[in-house]
Amino acid sequence: MSNLELDAEALYRSLAEQVKGALAKTDRLAIVGIYSGGAWLAERLAEELKVEERLGFIDVSFYRDDYAEKGLPTSVKPTQIPFEVEGASILLVDDVLYTGRTTRAAINELFDYGRPAKIMLAALVDRGGRELPIAADFVAKTVSVASNQLLVLQRADDGRFTLNVHNA
């Protein structure tokens, strides 16, 4: 465990303010959360932006380029995109941006549903260590975490978020 203190609720509020300020008047805005932490964040953002009918969830397990190395995931959730992707402005939401591979996989999967007008990325935390040229349009905090550590977002029964550092 690290001594890094991260107030996930404060980080969420910061991210939400950035997103609301920039996207309040965006045409055909849709929000897609990447399971699981990104999906939780996306739910709250969609509620605040009043776009619940244009909220989707995506599981990138089978779209990752390291699928063969990681093997079959222990749990796969169904991707749910209940709106027309073609021409939509999509806010893709993830909890932690690290190598960029999850984001790339999510974008590839989104294109299976149509060609969006634009895809923007929101991440609660950017921990650096990119392996692909991907950057978030909205990020609450950039932190340094050792490569042998993980940042794990959790959601309590009351919906509150916590973010913890764990050894891998």
Short description:
With 168 residues, the protein is an alpha/beta fold. Helices cover 26% and strands 28% of the residues.
Give a written overview of the molecule.
- This protein has 168 residues and is α/β, with parallel strands linked by helices.
- It has 4 helices and 7 strands.
- The protein has helices spanning 8-23, 37-49, 67-70, 101-111, and strands at residues 29-34, 55-58, 89-97, 118-126, 138-142, 149-155, 161-167.
- Strands 2-1-3-4-5 form a 5-stranded parallel beta sheet. Strands 6-7 form a two-stranded antiparallel sheet.
- Helix 1 packs across helix 2 (37-49).
- The longest helix has 16 residues, at 8-23.
- It starts with 7 loop residues before the first helix and ends with a strand.
Topology at a glance:
Blueprint: H1 8-23, E1 29-34, H2 37-49, E2 55-58, H3 67-70, E3 89-97, H4 101-111, E4 118-126, E5 138-142, E6 149-155, E7 161-167
Parallel strand pairs: 1-2, 1-3, 3-4, 4-5
Antiparallel strand pairs: 6-7
Helix pairs in contact: 1-2
Structural class call reads alpha/beta
Most strands sheet: 5 strands, parallel
- Low-confidence region ranges: none
Considering DSSP H and I runs of 4 or more, what fraction of the residues is helical?
Answer: 25-40%
> What's the tally of helices?
4
Strand and helix order: HEHEHEHEEEE
Strand line-up in the sheet with most strands? 2-1-3-4-5
Q: Tell me the overall shape.
A: globular
Total E-strand runs: 7
End-to-end separation: 10 Å
Radius of gyration: 15 Å
Q: Approximately how much beta-strand content do the residues carry?
A: 25-35%
Q: What is the residue-mean pLDDT, rounded to a whole number?
A: 92
